[in-house]
Amino acid sequence: MKTRALSLFFVLAASPALAETPAPMSAATLLGPDVKGPNWTVAESVRSDGFVRLYTVETPYGNFQVNGQRRMEQRLNELRALSALEQMSTTKTFAQALGNAGLAPIRFGRDLILDPVETTGNLFSGVANMFDRAVDEVEQSSASRDDLVDSVAGVSKATRELAFELKVDPYTDFTPLRDGLADVARAMAAGDLSITAAISAIPGGAGVAVSATSTASTLANPIRDKSSAEIAALVEAKLKPLDVDEDVIDAFVQNKSFSPADTYAIAEALEGLKARNSEAFIRRAANADSADLAKFHRHRAELMARHSAQVGTLKEFYVVREFALNRNNDGALVAVFPFDDLAWTEPAAKSLDLISLELATRGETKQPILATAGKVSATALAELKKRGWRVLILNDARAAL
What is the pTM of this model? Predict the structure, then answer.
């Protein structure tokens, strides 16, 4: 095994600096007609940090960046929901409810507040930063996201119900939508206006609001009527049988980078996967320091659960260079990542070089597998093969590359 490690060392040492710069992509090609909507315009040029796509979006609430294809699709869904809320707030029925409650008209995006991580011009996503750092770093009430006063007044419950009807996450990190949901729900609760009546009052009929949003909800049915603290309890109930330490679970559900819906989706995916040492995944997910990185962990857990059989049935989490990778039924190491486009950028090259070298020094005898649902550049594919990896494209008719 020392010979294999030494051989790989010389391969890596002899490799020229091939770090590539991903070419910009077309938003129209990636999103089709969704490049423009009632309250958004997506900039035509879409950059990549070598892991995920970086979109720039212009809205009446400010301009911001969205990191990742799936996250972009969710953000567009949230913008549709926000448009539906604005339509709702201008109806005669809603105006009467506001008047009955003695409330002023709602001003959406009144402060144009956006999360700092999504300001435009960031060259790297939280995902790229995680890989870059990997090179250098070789009680339920506390988990509650619901305001106490709003909970007592029934506003939090109304917010969750309204969000579910619009098929968005009530705990979204998108500030304009989160504030809009709360403001509309507060007015509805104070004015004794039902969600059905509010949606039905939208010009064009009740179907306008719902049809304006995606058919895929980010909020699962089992947690529709649950508070954030109740969701945290459900997450704990799913993770404890997987031998995840209680302190690790607490850190995970209390991390505000995740919405409660994210933590539930991850717990549900791991529950279905039933892989040993699931704590390794949760422990690292609990350290997420941005919303896009939190979403990456969620998408990764869902991808592993959905495609476990395709990669040889994932049986165990196995830590390599601070990444919770997997072993499959054959004992091979499997790295499943929901990349949009994997390019051989400097963070990718350095982190995958270190993983490859560590596997060699540990005496791995099985060929490791890198599985992703995204595209892999020709350079990245050649470099991974040179390091002994088998690359598998998930959801693709092609066999292993």
Answer: 0.84
Q: Characterise 91 by phi-psi region: left (phi > 0), alpha (psi -120 to 50), beta (else).
A: beta
Domain extents in the chain: 2-20+223-393, 70-211
Chain-centroid distance, C-alpha 214 = 16
Tens of pLDDT, residue by residue, the chain (401 residues): 455 544 554 455 445 456 788 999 999 999 999 999 999 999 999 999 999 999 999 999 888 899 999 999 999 999 999 999 988 888 888 888 888 777 778 877 655 555 544 666 676 777 877 777 665 544 444 555 555 444 444 567 888 888 888 888 888 888 889 888 888 888 888 777 887 887 777 766 444 444 444 444 455 677 777 888 999 999 999 999 999 999 999 999 999 999 999 999 999 999 999 999 999 999 999 999 989 899 999 999 999 999 999 999 999 999 998 899 999 999 999 999 999 999 999 888 888 888 888 888 888 889 999 999 999 999 999 999 988 899 999 975 444 44
Cβ(230)–Cβ(253) under 8 Å?
A: no
Residue type (1 letter), 316: E
Q: With 0-12 CB in 10 A as exposed, 13-18 as middle and 19+ as buried, what is 64? A: buried
Are 304 and 344 spatial neighbours (Cβ–Cβ below 8 Å)?
no
| C-beta of residue 362 within 8 angstroms of C-beta of residue 327 | no
